[in-house]
Amino acid sequence: MSQDQNKDHKLDGQPDPSRRKFLNTAAFAGLAGAGLSVGLSACKQEQAPAPAAPAAPAAAPVAHGSANATHLKPGELDTYYGFWSGGHTGDFRVLGLPSGREITRVPCFVPDALTGWGITNESKKIMGTKPDGSLRYTVADTHHTHASYKDGNYDGRYAWINDKINSRLARIRLDYFTCDKITELPNVQGFHGIFPDKRDPVDPAINYTTRVFCGSEFQIPLPNAGKDVNDPSKYRSMFTCVDAETMEVRWQVLIDGNCDLAATSYDGKLAATNQYNTEGGVLYPDMMSAERDACLFFNVARIEQAVKEGKFKTYGDSKVPVVDGTRESNKDPKTALTCTVSVPKNPHGVNASPDGKYFICAGKLSPTATVIELAKVLDWFEGNLESADKAIVAEVEIGLGPLHTAFDGRGNAYTTLFLDSQVVKWNVDAAIKFSAGDTAQKYVVDRLDVQYQPGHINASQSETAAADGKYLCVGCKFSKDRFLPVGPLHPENEQLIDISGEKMVLLADHPVRPEPHDFIIMKRELINPKQVYNIDDFPLAIKDPKDSGVFREGKKVTVKMYSMAPAFSLTEFKLKVGDEVTLILTNLDKVEDLTHGFAIPKYNVNFIVNPQETASVTFKVDKPGVFWCYCTHFCHALHLEMRSRMIVEA
Ligand SMILES: [Cu+2]
């Protein structure tokens, strides 16, 4: 273990130097019940204000660290998209950066009152329903979002986001910014990290994302059907591969320990997850008993070959092939599907450096970052490295509670320090030289206080071959005094930092409803959204005005309508109590930004149709009377007059 060589960077109020060593089980167990008291007290020691951003001279071009950097004049557009997870709200947030303005939210896992997500038949089909047609789930916990790659950079096709509660993966089409598929992973609980592959592990012609890897944190009995519930030694977790196009689960790997975050190599050959509970503990102290946990690597090509050769099992009702990635079965490197590289105590976060050479794991309960050289991991799989831990090329102290790492493309890494309430900028090459014995290397370049207790971090284009080192965002878990008080529930604080110079400069705070977890930031020119739908993409579309009308087959009624500002095609439609109605609405307007809504009072119906979009709802007619259906989305000077009478006869 190396020593912290940056003594001048140490903060005041560190009475006990040993505190900067491992937080042992006892120390951390003392926190149980006290919540995050260590984190908060660490923060109190460090209330020194962040360095103020120097004011930019009037009318000068925006300089490094300028407060003006985040201010856009009216009508100016941001230069980056930020894709954020919505946390408990179960959606996908789209921000513009550097302004930090929230532009939209894409509903995925949880119903949304604006768009009618979870109300329309089309969205319910994607979300999944019970036999009675009601939604299977109405809660979610989104954590991680990542986007598809081509040639090592984002290609603007898809983004993915996970739901930890119900182990679901949603895909967002980045042409329309809509969720088009949701997959529930079998055999796992606590689905946490995701990462798309960056190219095919075998076929050099496939230089874009074809798979999404998913880690699962919670070990469970397999199959999880009521047996072995009192025998934690039988609890296991799996690493899952989902097909990026079909969104079907391709395969799973049974492993020792658990999965946390995920990362993929630029050559497509390796995926990895950091593991914080290699002990397989069920109780809190058990999960922290080992001094070292791991970064577990998956040899993707070998796993797929094993699946092809039928070397797999299935569990319970699931048909997904599960290969054996446990340590016991993978001792011979030349045939191993997995490779375990040890990492100090309960690591959190594994991130791929933009030069493609390293994965970096942060220690969480150890004040260290571990740098693993991927070429050496591949050497191990070839039988040319005497032990997997020889792939570790640096393990350096960077501060207390390191969690996640971002990159600037200039050889520097930026790691959040949860307990220190800081971001530390450190140089990867210097850290490697330091670990190799050159103790004159000053690998820590800068430290910046953040407000407060940072978790996720990401920089513009960070985990791409085009990392540009302009902006860094930090998701602070606590905001405390940074915003107007709004009662007991505090927003979180998303902070924007300028990293274009040697020193980091804090530019802006943004409140956000809890809790966003992870995010990515990409150049705006990589995304090409469409403004108007293609009417042919909707099988139910009412393309010809004369197809509008009420069509009855016994008690089943189909109401076909179209909208064209400022009118619906039917000024009224008649139904009878007891009917089962499917109402289909096509928006025939082709004008950009001309969206209509459709609400039915007392029937719990409201949804929108964007230009050239079709949506439908199905409901039982159970209340007689007159119901004024109206357009809920402002569309025209006569928007208030845009109505249709639903007349229900008893
Ligand atoms: Cu309207």
UniProtKB/TrEMBL annotation:
It is an enzyme of class 1 (oxidoreductase). Pathway: Nitrogen metabolism; nitrate reduction (denitrification); dinitrogen from nitrate: step 4/4. Residues 552-650 form the Cytochrome oxidase subunit II copper A binding domain. It comes from Aromatoleum evansii. PROSITE patterns: COX2_CUA, TAT. Its EC number is 1.7.2.4. Belongs to the NosZ family. It is found in: Periplasm. Pfam families: COX2 (PF00116), nos_propeller (PF18764), nos_propeller_2 (PF18793). It comes from the Bacteria. This is Nitrous-oxide reductase. Its cofactor is Ca(2+); Cu cation. Homodimer. Nitrous-oxide reductase is part of a bacterial respiratory system which is activated under anaerobic conditions in the presence of nitrate or nitrous oxide. The keyword Iron does not apply. It catalyses: N2 + 2 Fe(III)-[cytochrome c] + H2O = nitrous oxide + 2 Fe(II)-[cytochrome c] + 2 H(+). One of its GO terms (molecular function) is nitrous-oxide reductase activity. Keywords: Calcium, Copper, Metal-binding, Oxidoreductase, Periplasm, Signal. Its main location: periplasm. Gene3D superfamilies: Cupredoxins - blue copper proteins, YVTN repeat-like/Quinoprotein amine dehydrogenase.
